[in-house]
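Field log, afternoon session.

UNIT: design team B
ACTIVITY: writing a sequence onto a fixed backbone
BACKBONE:
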């Protein structure tokens, strides 16, 4: 409400604006686009069904989105978003490579994405989504032997509902292998503190919003262990550091596969759902509405 005279730029000018609704007009083609703030999720969904709203970007629930997949009145377009979720090893406690390879072998990512999350996410084959030019897939078998654990493993997670659901599933599946997994969910600030203070063996987390492969050193470089960076795994690998310094990110990916600090689970989805009468609408990895420039 405090913005009385918003500035117009680009191909659109602002015709009207308040805290609930903004109307833009294309400078040349003169058509109008109306943006509505709809706080209630169910109301947002109903307005789309009634075609009172023509497109929605990244703001429906999983069940709502899936309910529209077979609705011929709408088109859904999806691409991997700039986020990667992972199950990370605390390298101060799980430094043994064979142990990490064995634990990685127990996580059926394809099953998890398809059955737990109904294909809400894209399968991850590494830290980067595959649309990065330097992406290379590594999934070759690396020999390992079965490991017996004499005490429970402690899994730290946030209170994110998907992570809690995954943690419970992992707990049940690992129990079948005689591995006891204890789950400790925390709000964000305490979650980070517990990890940095060396209290867990494993932790669930996500990297969000990175736009370049230089995420590699920041996420797992030896110089970026907290408080300097996001390397909460406390991973240290001289060859990895050298590859990053040389910007040889293909090599960086290979090292993270052969000597894993984490199990990369999935990439989030960026999507738009829109009335089939519309054309030229597409999602972006950042969730931007760039397609408006092409209408």
């Amino acid at each position: 409400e405090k913005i009385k005279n918003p500035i117009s730029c680009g191909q659109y000018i602002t015709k009207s604006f308040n805290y609930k609704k903004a109307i833009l007009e294309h400078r040349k083609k003169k058509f109008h686009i109306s943006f509505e703030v709809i706080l209630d999720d169910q109301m947002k969904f109903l307005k789309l069904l009634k075609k009172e709203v023509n497109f929605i970007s990244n703001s429906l629930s999983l069940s709502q989105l899936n309910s529209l997949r077979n609705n011929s009145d709408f088109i859904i377009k999806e691409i991997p978003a700039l986020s990667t979720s992972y199950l990370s090893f605390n390298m101060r406690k799980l430094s043994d490579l064979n142990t990490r390879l064995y634990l990685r072998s127990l996580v059926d990512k394809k099953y998890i994405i398809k059955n737990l999350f109904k294909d809400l996410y894209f399968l991850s084959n590494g830290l980067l989504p595959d649309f990065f030019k330097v992406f290379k897939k590594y999934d070759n078998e690396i020999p390992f032997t079965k490991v017996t654990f004499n005490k429970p493993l402690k899994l730290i997670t946030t209170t994110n509902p998907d992570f809690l659901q995954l943690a419970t599933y992992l707990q049940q599946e690992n129990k079948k292998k005689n591995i006891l997994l204890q789950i400790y969910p925390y709000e964000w600030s305490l979650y980070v503190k517990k990890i940095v203070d060396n209290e867990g063996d494993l932790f669930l987390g996500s990297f969000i919003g990175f736009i370049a492969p230089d995420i590699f050193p920041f996420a797992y470089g030896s110089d970026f262990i907290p408080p300097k960076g996001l390397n909460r795994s406390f991973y240290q690998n001289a060859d990895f550091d050298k590859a990053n310094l040389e910007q040889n990110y293909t090599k960086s990916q290979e090292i993270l596969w052969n000597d894993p600090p984490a199990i990369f689970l999935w990439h989030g989805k960026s999507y738009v759902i829109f009335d089939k009468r519309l054309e030229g609408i597409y999602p972006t990895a950042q969730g931007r509405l760039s397609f408006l420039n092409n209408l």
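LOG NOTE: The first strand starts at residue 12 and ends at 17.
NEXT ACTIVITY: expression trials, pending approval
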